[in-house]
Amino acid sequence: MSQLSNAPQWKKNMYALWFGNFATGAGASMSLPFLPLFISTMDNFPKWELTLYAGIAFSVTFLSQAIVSPLWGKLADRTGRKPMLLRAAAAMTITATLTGLSPNVWVLILLRLIQGAFSGYINNAYALVASEVPQEQSGRVMGTLTTGNVGGQLIGPIIGGAIAGIFGYRIPFFLFGAFMLLATLITLFGVKENFVPLPKDDHHQTESAFAGIKQIHVVWAMIISSMLIQAATNSINPIISLFVKELMHNQGNIAFASGVVAAMPGIATLLSAPRLGSLGDHIGPQKVLIGGLLLSGLAFTPMFFTTTVLMLGILRFFVGIADAALLPVTQTVMTLDTPTSAISRIFSYNQSFQAIGSVIGPMLASGVAGILDYRYVFLMTTLLVIINLLVVLWAYRKDGIKLTRAK
């Protein structure tokens, strides 16, 4: 305890924000996999209507997030990151708790819309720590901060599944609210920020974010790739618990099984991300990116033929390995090809496109599942992966480069 009290403030901030990231990851993931099952208890919806509402409920959060995030970013430049952290944590405390009290699907969707508009805890946690940590320790510290979010995403679905199976689907939302209340208090009392606002006449704020980028097609390809990766990965979210229910023939603890299946990509990503990052340093990020896309396609396609929850979980594990190769590598490539003065703005574009992908994927999946069947969602995601691969190959050919250098 004495070591913590004597630690520099940035380290105290990191510990506090690690818990905030853990609470956000765990809270969201312990409730979202069971959202379709929760909606199904609100009325006797036909299959097409249930999948449609589930898709809207998933997507609307990311839609409002994509629209509002740039506005919060500008406000953060004037007020600092801590007010943004408190705003996000307090808002999620309220919206998550009220979601558990939703009397019908339309109130639920409205609350999810509001939650997305006021979210952004994890992004602001990264920004605050990155602005304060000594440069020579930034890699290790940012990696430590990441384990909070990923660890929460791993444990959340399993705990949420067990609780939902015993006490009902509303309880995980109440737990989400309780987690975010703790995050709010820890952020309020445990985080101290020495904020210096950006000058209003800073020329970097008026210059185009894409000015000075030589491989412009590659950077745009990475932004589009981030969107398509999110669309493919999140497409299963609205139907995962419904598909597991079908595979289990409506027998057993469906919520717990859904939670385990939902957690598998996170487990794989946590185990494989450091090694794949090191591999990218040695053979070049382009090869890792293309390999990840190929693995992703090979993992999604067999899901169409899946007949057991075990096989679905195994294939989802391989999707997690592919994700560990894809998202970090797209960011690495953008960093390599973007001037330092434009990196923050390019990454903000990237985050917006990721949010758009999280809207497109679930909505497409809901339409496909409602018209055809749950299994056809996996063929749709395979098609998205193929499009992604073609976009990446076209961009490198257009810019006439082969990116095999280490970062």
Describe this structure in words.
InterPro entries: MFS, MFS_dom, MFS_trans_sf, Tet-R_TetA/multi-R_MdtG-like. It comes from Paucilactobacillus vaccinostercus DSM 20634. This is Major facilitator superfamily protein. It is a multi-pass membrane protein. Keywords: Cell membrane, Membrane, Transmembrane, Transmembrane helix, Transport. The structure is a single chain. This protein has about 400 residues and is mainly alpha-helical. It folds into two domains: about 1-190, Growth Hormone, Chain: A; about 205-405, MFS general substrate transporter like domains (Growth Hormone, Chain: A, Up-down Bundle). The protein has 16 helices and no strands. The chain has helices spanning about 1-5, 10-30, 35-40, 45-80, 80-100, 105-115, 120-130, 140-165, 170-190, 215-235, 240-245, 255-285, 285-300, 310-335, 345-370, 375-400. It is globular and about 55 Å long. It starts with a helix and ends in an 8-residue tail after the last helix.
